[in-house]
Give the backbone structure.
Amino acid sequence: MPSIPDKPDEEKKQSPWVQVGRYSQIAFMLPAGTVAGYLLGALLDRWLHASWISIVGLLLGTAGGLIELIRTISRDLK
Amino acid sequence: MPEQLWFTAFLNRLFAAPVTAFLRMLGIHPKYAVAPIPNSFAMELLVFFLLLAIFLLVRSRLSVESPGGLQHSFEGIEGFVLGQSHEIIGHHSEPYTAFFTILFIFILVCNLIGLIPGFESPTAVAHVPLGCAICAFIYYHTQGFKHSGIKYLLHFFGPPMEGMPLWARIPMAALMLPIEIVSHFARLLSLTVRLWANMFAGDLITLVFLSMIPIGIPVLFLGLHILVAVLQAYVFMLLAIIYVSGAVSEEH
């Protein structure tokens, strides 16, 4: 049976591959947040017969992407 | 008639009528009633049955004293995934390893099957990565609820605001709720687009160079395509681990 690596949990240093995976998502965070926010807003617009929710969704998505970006970077800078 | 791979044509010849009837029952009208199964779904199904057959074979030959090559390979993959999830989630990561392992193997085989002539990568069609991303999305939320119960919903109200007075916490949490919901859907989108775009671009580049210079150069791009296929399967699995780690963390 495969064994669990004996690295202690307290050890914050992560392997380079994990860091590659973690940082590769940074490029996607902001655009994905913006597009997801806009799409959710557009969906709500269609459902509620409104026209402003997609703009709010776009702004919230941008903010969400930015927050996620700052969170990821600040987590690793600690 | 759409262009069909031999396996898709085989499935359509056998199951076109019941699949079309089933889709119509759901209110979906396929463009081609005689070929309702697309190549991507046929390839996905092939990978599923291929993996099922391999797993059954490994299971039937499982041995502690003299493990075979196949058992060694799968134990190696499982050990690798376990190591990664232990590094990110911590010592309580074992229950989640099975999901991460199967996600990794499934995406890897889906990415690589396109290199065999007569087959194509199902992950180069957007709805297959979307399906995998939805699975990961549902899984990490389910694990979050299983781990923290109803308290998991606190994750959607932003990070803990210990030093903040109550009157400021409530509007802050109300503002964070839609932002967090959108962020979770953004994860779904980024998982989908990353895998789909990489596989689609890889296929396209290989095809373009194969049509321009048929000897020598395409081998380099095929090598690059294999590297991208392995890397993307790894990144998808890693991000699923990171999302589960966030869902089962004790931050709130």
